[in-house]
Amino acid sequence: MGLDQLIKKCKQKNAKAQEQLYRLYSSKLFSICLKYSNDHASAEDNLQDAFITIFDKIIQYKNKGSFEGWIKRVTINTALQKYRKQKVFDIINEEQLEEVDVEINDEEVSLDYLLEIIQQLPHRYRLVFNLYVLDGYSHKEIAEMLDISVGTSKSNLARARNILKVKIEETKEPYARAID
Questions:
Q1: Closest Cα to residue 127, out of 71, 70, 76, 68?
Q2: Which domains does the chain have, with CATH numbers?
Q3: Degrees, nearest 5: CA angle 74-18-80
Q4: pLDDT tens for each residue of 43-74
């Protein structure tokens, strides 16, 4: 059965089609949930909530644009929904923030280590970092998604980058000493 037929059957609330759609996309969507959750259990909860929303709102999908893009957006919005109501973001002055460049040498910092330190970021910084850097949203879009100001989004991104820069530099120091 093709994707269009599968979507059509899901719109008709066909349980077998819903199960097939779940099997087709659950691993991709779970990795998104992990990026926006505090832990594995929260990611699993967010995945289940996302699929409930996907099956509830699939009738709104008009077969225009990427279906995968649509379900990814639903999943991100589902995972972020709980944070909109919480006051987890610092309110800041909208003054100019210094952009921090983080230089990464593949030989010194592995992808696994980079993903690990991103996951260790304070939650509010990790959310903005993931949305901006990994998923390509603008600060305006992030501000709307998280119900924060554009300045708060920029501030949280700058703080996330600063933390990552420090952790990466800490990794480089033993490497640099070994070369000397």
A1: 76
A2: 3-85 (1.10.1740.10), 111-179 (1.10.10.10)
A3: 20
A4: 999 999 999 999 999 999 988 889 999 999 99
Q: 154-175: per-residue pLDDT in tens?
A: 999 999 999 999 988 887 665 4
d(CA 123, CA 175): 29
The residue assigned the tokens 């919005």 is 77
* Closest CA relative to residue 122, chosen from 72, 171, 163: 163
> What's the rounded Cα separation, in Å, for the pair 7 and 55?
10
DSSP secondary structure string, 61-104?
A: --S-S-HHHHHHHHHHHHHHHHHHHS--S---------------
DSSP line for 112-171: HHHHHHHHTS-HHHHHHHIIIIIS---HHHHHHHHT--HHHHHHHHHHHHHHHHHHHHHH
How confident is residue 180, by pLDDT bands cut at 50, 70 and 90? very low
The pTM of the full predicted model, rounded to 2 decimals, is 0.67
Contacts made by residues 146-149, CB under 8 angstroms, sequence distance 24+: 146/80, 146/83, 146/84, 146/89, 147/84, 148/89, 149/91, 149/92, 149/94
Reduced to 3 states (helix: H, G, I; strand: E, B; else coil), residue 51 is helix
Note whether 50 and 75 are within 8 A (CB): yes
Spatial separation of the C-alpha atoms in residues 174 and 45, rounded to whole Å: 40
